[in-house]
Amino acid sequence: MxxxxxxxxxxxxxxxFLGKGGxxxxxxxxxxxxxxAEAGASTLLISTDPTPSLSHIFELEGHQQERDVAxxxxxxxxxxxxxxxxxxxxxxxxxYAVFSAFVDIPYGTFVEFMTSVLPGLxxxxxxxHIRRLALQRTHRHVVWDTAPLGxxxxxxxxxSLLAEHLRMAPRVYSHLRTSGEGRESxxxxxxxxxxxxxxxxxxxxxxxxxxxxxxxxxxxxRQVDGVLEELARHGLGVDRVIVNNVIMTRDSEFLARKADExxxxxxxxxxxxxxxxxxxxPLFPHEIRGMARLREIxxxxxxxxxxxx
Length: 309
Fold this sequence. Notes:
Number of strands: 8
Strand content: 5-15%
Order of helices and strands: EHEHEEHHHEHHHEHEHEH
Distance between the termini: 24 Å
Largest sheet: 8 strands, mixed
Structural class: alpha/beta
Number of helices: 11
């Protein structure tokens, strides 16, 4: 396990929740984190959603970025300003040195542009941030509620691709300006940037567990393959599937018809993920907000994991 192994008190375990919008991945992530914390393990729950909802789910007042919400459970919601700070600390100067060889743009303007409009940049910094948290071992578990990683993975691969293109176009490369610090060559900068991106990719592949959240509806099930293909393109995969909002009762004609429709999709998912744990979480008759209702989801996730194990 390399640099992540052998720490006193055990290894930090990182769980990422993936899924299309509206399937309940934030709820599942929050319930999982609460369950881990109430089992006695120090847990950090992180959201990088552009419209974070953890405060709503935990019924928290105010706009604190990070807070303790229960014994052993800390919640962190990171926004655009945090992304810009991470850019400046980890990636910004390296990337700016490359792009400033092509265009003349002030660094502050460049950072604002990149962090505002480039898809997936938020999660790219979070991969490195969470990798560093795992190395620090401050928490036993880190639970990350995020968007699908396709755009992020493409960004992590970008420095290597750009370096390869420059090697193939030596006449273009020979006319690029050097970076400001020590007249370092652009290829040297790209190598440093690639090394950092490579560390993040290795971390995702070796140290992170991916849970895919889906609902038993035809469109959602069809979208699953797209998420899996993006992961597989970079040598990643899921190790657990959570099917949310499953109708468990047939107490009315309406529910019976919906349950029959869901059964077709559930069978398709079981066939698609044969050999993987597939956990079914029931559809509840109320909105999931607050500790008591999150515990219901945590209990369902636990029962499902035991049954599928």
